[in-house]
User: What shape does this take?
Amino acid sequence: MAPLDRLELPPRLVDWSILAAVGVALATGLTSLVSGQPGEAFVFVLHGIGGLSLVLLLFWKLRRVRRRITTGAAWDRATPVSVLLATAALGALATGTYWAFGGSLDLGPWGLLNLHIGLGLLVVPLLVYHLRHRFRVPSTADFEGRRTALSYAAVVGVGALAWRLQGAANALLDTAGARRRFTGSREKGTDGGNGFPVTSWVADDPEPVDTETWALSVDGRVARPLELGYGDVDSETDAALDSDGRRALLDCTSGWYSEHDWRGRSVGDLLDAADADPDARWVSFRSVTGYRWSLPLPEARAALLATHVDGERLSHGHGFPLRLVAPGRRGFQWVKWVESVEITRNRNLSEWLAVFVSGFD
Ligand SMILES: Nc1nc2c(c(=O)[nH]1)N[C@H]1C(S)=C(S)[C@@H](COP(=O)(O)O)O[C@H]1N2
Ligand SMILES: [Mo]
Assistant: This one.
């Protein structure tokens, strides 16, 4: 306690630093959901350091305001929301830290990371309300002094050090947290065919697709629109298109990853067969449920519409008859039960909505 007492940070500076650290944690947290390439690992590192700095700053802040909360007479209109805000923030920090150390939680269709994301998002409206009632314009006096600068550097330094120690402790104890990918995800069911987890949004739960009536359409900015039956795309049968294989890793934002040998149709071949407009820029993949996602044309050409995983025909849960395999993209972009490939000039931003509400009629 004594060394912390000597590190005196002016209250306003603590408050502003908390705001900055929350901003970093939120921005990196949201960005992390669409980051999966090794070059984007820094997003996850910053998220960890931002979160751990926040633990320290909140400790300071709560020490300062605790009497305003424990003394009933000091409560005003905004206090209940402030208490909720502190609860949500501490909850987000606790779930994030617990995850990093290998913890899990079974909440039916959701897990610990979903709870972490939910609490983190809950912080936003509560913080906006809190700021509307408690915001004070800072003065330069809040930020002056060598002592302040030193204390401040110590906070960030301790945050980064805590992050390093967390990694070392995980490795030493060999926790499940030590075996996670740079995205934080843990391995499940690699090379085991259809045996890996099935993850769908709650409302995205179609009936098994009937290949008698199912067809894949390839249209939009193409000279020759295609309509293909399952016999035309099945990589087990002889068809007009060659089958293609690829090893790729699916990394779900709910915290697991799985690497497999996928086989199916190269999207590039399909686009060639349909004579796609080379000036088009986006390829949209749509599910029978309405769920959809787009990839830039060059990336789409290198992607696969898979019929098989590790030599097994895809199960219904994994997207039979056809699912997108988009190497380097996060799992939610790997559209299942694909029935339409559309080549477009501009990206259709409605897909951001579709990934959340598809399946609702
Ligand atoms: N149509 C559709 N595709 C979908 C989803 C969905 O809910 N509906 N879930 C996505 C998510 S969040 C992930 S992680 C992967 C999971 O694929 P899997 O269920 O085969 O493991 O599929 C993606 N594709
Ligand atoms: Mo996912």
Remarks:
- Residues 196-201, 204, 252, 287, 289, 291, 317-319, 331-332, 334-337 surround MTE (ligand 1) (CB under 6 Å).
- The radius of gyration is 25 Å.
- The longest strand covers residues 256-266.
